[in-house]
Specification:
Length: about 350
Amino acid sequence: MSNETIYILGIESSCDDTSASVICNGKVLSNVVANQEVHAKYGGVVPELASRAHQQNIVPVVQQAIEQAGITKHDLNAIAFTRGPGLMGSLLVGTSFAKSLALGLNIPLIDVNHMQAHILAHFINEEDSNIPPFPFVCLTISGGHTQIVKITNHFEMEILGETIDDAVGEAFDKSAKILGLPYPGGPLIDKYAQLGNPKAFKFTKPKVGDLEFSFSGLKTGILYFVQKNTKENPNFIKENLHDICASIQYTIIEILMDKLKNTVKQTGIKRIAIAGGVSANSEIRKRLTTAQKYWGWTTYIPKFEYTTDNAAMIAIAGYLKYLNNDYSDISVTAQARLKVTE
């Protein structure tokens, strides 16, 4: 088995990016992502438009991924695709395409849990890759998820804590919206925060369980804070944008770091990984790097291109399942809601 060359095609279509990737024995040969510009003017992802754009993008994206990998479709050993969680219409495009391609090529079909794939992106084999040994803890942070997951092996995961309301990515995007920044606003808050004073304004941290998160109260607090100050000074946002962004980002990252400290205290596991779109945030990356120095943690931070939704993470999860002969039946269906443990 070890000498065999295994090519896995990964297809990701859970939200508004259509992506395809070819992995060979755990190494990425191609990772093509087509972004959908159409949503920016609506200030958020419009599901109906997203699924239509996937239908237009999927064939060229898959073709490009196969060509970039320097192989033909007949070299593929299996097709891995995102089964969920995500937007139903978007998932259906990827699911039905993956099924027909696998049937046409007569090769195994492998369904992948999108949330597991974010975590398994840490196992992509690259020259400088730092692969976490088991067990480790992963903070999964994105627009739809905020959870702390204990990983015992590739497919044995346990949720230790999660948000009781909104996800952290939503907190970033909604705060940006309150400040009048365009969608997606999270990366802009990160950008402006670098120019501001994180202690300029104080926001209250929510009181919830040791490993639980809550962001809805914080969002409301930010809204009231902005409304009150704008009433007194109409130019308040413009004059203080960098400081407001820095203070919001500081508060959110403090919440995340507090929970990780509690997790280490409770589990005794000092290997900490991050995954998901918000792990591209420069401040959380910086804080985790310093945590190694101060608290003796070993931290695992994915490359930028593997943080947001991409098919390389789907392909690596597919590869690990392929090695276990863990294939899907052709009757498998897309699921909009799916826990990381399912």
